[in-house]
Write a structure and sequence with these properties.
The complex is a heterodimer of chains A (277) and B (347).
Chain A: H1 2-19, E1 27-29, H2 32-41, E2 47-49, H3 63-66, H4 77-82, E3 86-90, H5 95-103, E4 108-111, H6 117-130, H7 134-155, E5 161-166, E6 170-171, H8 177-184, E7 188-189, E8 200-201, H9 204-210, E9 214-217, H10 227-232, H11 235-240, E10 246-248, H12 251-254, H13 261-275
Parallel strand pairs in A: 1-2, 1-3, 3-4, 5-7, 5-9, 9-10
Antiparallel strand pairs in A: 5-6, 6-8
Helix pairs in contact in A: 1-6, 6-7, 7-13
Chain B: H1 3-37, H2 45-52, H3 58-93, H4 105-119, H5 128-148, H6 154-178, H7 182-192, H8 201-220, H9 222-228, H10 232-237, H11 242-264, H12 270-282, H13 286-310, H14 319-337, H15 339-346
Helix pairs in contact in B: 1-3, 1-13, 2-3, 3-8, 3-11, 3-12, 3-13, 4-5, 4-6, 4-7, 4-11, 5-6, 5-11, 8-11, 9-13, 12-13
Classes of the chains: A alpha/beta (277), B mainly alpha (347).
């Protein structure tokens, strides 16, 4: 991920020559994950617009904060009108839109999806450079490290086997942010024991047979709005994993790699204290 | 042929029917046992039996009683009601190509259920889902018979059925299109494929009452179907209220298919195939065809649901996909066989 930081730095350096005059580079973010990084690191007057999903409370930890900024359509047109100095996008955003913006001469900084806590820290640093506030990035990384240390003191003594379980029985594998969070705190992702190192769907039977210590889910409650969620509420699973055996980490805290992971880790610490009480 | 010979022939036929029905029943029982024994986790046959009756480890108990048993019950009941619905529709319309899925009933039921899911109106394990699915299925079959008219030929029925199932499909696509939440769209897409995986007794409780009610309605009309083979006027003169019969069949099919679709998604073509498999053995009497068709429907769905668990594949095959993959070529074969009748319809 060092490379991304380098790319970002070079890109910004070349731009800042052009826009050095007025107070800071003006930024558009086109991805819900980069939205949150921009919101936590940039000055408010630097932000020209945020992604289409920026106000989605399910996906974005900073949804409330995002309401005070314009929301973009996700297409190229409104970005072109805003004439930003930098456009922050994800490599998973629509390729055609990105190519069009590049062809129109805009400076794009492309972020990948981080898979580990180290990659997250690199991205925070890279975004700090993009918005020209590396000091803030440094402070956020320190906050993240402190949260990791707090979680470690609670979790590492027990070596619990935790199975991160999503709708339909999807299990995040080794190369996932959630696995990295668990590992950083001394917990074990039980996905490996199911033969799902790379992630994948686990059958209800296999989970019941494996009996990990806890399952990690993204919401509590017993409403099944669809069959995917009904999986997590199946009586067979509820029998072995009632609310006292479920670690709940809301999706908005874990879906992106960013400064909110510090909150995610604090939440994980609280939940561990709850379920092991 | 003397009267004695005739009686003898009738007795032979009756014995053959009972033999076939009994053999079919045994097959269904065997498939039920197999279905309880097969799953991603290997449980020995002895442990399965032990767990079924409340013995053995708690993990084996949960796997057999709470994961596999509801799945088996649903496959049995839903296969049965689909086979029965097919036989009843074929009896009502005196038409071997009639079946719920060709008439767009499951597709319409699916649209109803998808609407509930997409709008987030209710928990998927609440009665809202089957009720809306049943209403939609009723509407579609009713519309079909209304559009096609009383003595519609094969061609008109199939064309009208095609139009209605396409419309239901388009309406479903529209709901998915308008839904802003990508997860909901994915859920619906998966759900539409039709699956019995990881269902629970909550789902059994949801579907079974409607399936039983639908089956009761359809079975109660057995003798009317037989009279109807003499033609609508003759049946009318023999005291069959054809309009009432039609309404009852639509209601029965809608109750059964709607209830089934609400918990499994669309599972097609069982209703078409099952009666056809039975006709060579049982004969063409639509009344006698009902129960064997239901049993063969059960056997087909149980077998398909066992197959999706043992066919090696990178991700699990949905049972609704399998029944369609097998069912559509069968449908084509039937069309080929009925080619003359269809051709006559055009001329």
């Amino acid at each position: 991920m060092r490379m991304w930081r380098l790319v970002a730095v070079v890109a910004v350096w070349s731009m800042s020559c052009a826009a050095a005059s007025a107070g800071g580079l003006r930024i558009v973010s086109m991805n819900v994950c980069s939205d949150q990084l921009v919101l936590s690191l940039a000055d408010p007057d630097q932000i020209l617009g945020l992604s289409r999903f920026s106000r989605d409370t399910w996906q974005s930890w900073a949804a409330e904060q995002a309401k005070s900024y314009p929301r973009l359509s996700g297409e190229a047109e409104d970005v072109l009108l805003l004439k930003p100095d930098v456009v922050v996008v994800s490599l998973f955003d629509k390729r055609a839109t990105r190519d069009l913006l590049k062809a129109q001469g805009l400076h794009l900084v492309e972020f990948t999806v981080p898979r580990t806590l180290d990659e997250v820290k690199d991205q925070i640093r890279a975004m700090g450079d993009v918005v020209q506030h590396p000091d803030r990035a440094q402070a956020e990384i320190a906050r993240l490290d402190a949260a990791i240390a707090r979680a470690r003191t609670v979790a590492s003594a027990h070596h619990y086997r935790v199975l991160p379980l999503e709708r339909r029985g999807f299990v995040s594998g080794d190369r996932s942010l959630i696995s990295s969070l668990l590992a950083a705190t001394g917990l074990t992702n039980a996905a490996g024991e199911l033969g799902l190192d790379a992630g994948g769907f686990a059958s209800l039977e296999a989970i019941v047979k494996l009996r990990p210590d806890f399952i990690l889910v993204s919401e509590a409650g017993d409403r099944a709005e669809d069959e995917g969620r009904a999986f997590l509420l199946h009586p067979a699973l509820e029998r072995f994993y009632p609310a006292e055996k479920r670690i709940v980490l809301p999706e908005r805290l874990t879906v992106c790699g960013g400064v909110m992971l510090a909150d995610a880790l604090d939440r994980l610490t609280e939940e561990l204290q709850r379920v092991t009480r | 042929m003397s009267v004695q010979d005739f009686a003898l022939a009738a007795e032979v036929a009756a014995r053959r029917r009972w033999g076939a029905t009994a053999a079919l029943f045994a097959l269904v029982v065997l498939l039920c046992v197999l279905s309880l024994g097969i799953g991603p986790v290997r449980v020995s046959p002895l442990a399965v039996i032990e767990a079924l009756f409340g013995g053995g480890s708690d993990v084996a108990q949960v796997i057999v009683r709470e994961i596999r048993l509801p799945r088996t019950i649903l496959a049995f009941a839903i296969g049965g009601i689909l086979g029965l619905s097919g036989a009843a529709l074929q009896g009502l319309l005196r038409n071997p190509l009639a079946s719920p899925s060709l008439f767009g009933a499951p597709q319409s039921a699916a649209f109803g259920a998808v609407l509930v899911i997409a709008l987030g109106l209710a928990d998927v394990r609440s009665y809202a889902l089957p009720v809306v699915a049943i209403i939609a299925a009723f509407g579609s079959v009713f519309a079909l018979l209304a559009i096609a008219g009383r003595n519609a030929g094969l061609l008109i029925l199939i064309l009208a059925g095609l139009a209605i199932s396409s419309f239901a499909g388009a309406a479903t696509a529209l709901v998915m299109n308008l839904s802003g939440n990508p997860f909901v769209v994915l859920e619906i897409a998966f759900w539409l494929l039709g699956s019995l995986e990881d269902r629970s007794f909550q789902h059994v409780a949801l579907a079974l009452p409607f399936i039983i009610a639908g089956a009761a309605v359809l079975l109660s009309q057995a003798s009317a179907f037989r009279t109807l083979t003499l033609g609508e006027e003759a049946a009318q003169s023999l005291g069959v209220d054809v309009a009432r019969l039609r309404l009852l069949v639509i209601t029965g099919v809608a109750l059964g298919v709607g209830g089934a679709v609400a918990v499994t998604g669309t599972i097609g073509f069982i209703g078409l195939v099952a009666p056809h498999l039975m006709r060579p053995v049982i004969g063409h009497d639509p009344a006698r065809l009902l129960v064997p068709s239901a049993l063969s429907g059960s056997a087909l769905l149980l077998a398909a649901d066992i197959a999706v668990r043992i066919i090696p594949s990178t991700s699990d095959i949905k049972v609704g996909v399998l029944t369609s993959i097998i069912g559509v070529p069968f449908f084509l074969y039937l069309i080929m066989r009925e080619r003359r009748a269809l051709g006559g319809g055009v001329a």
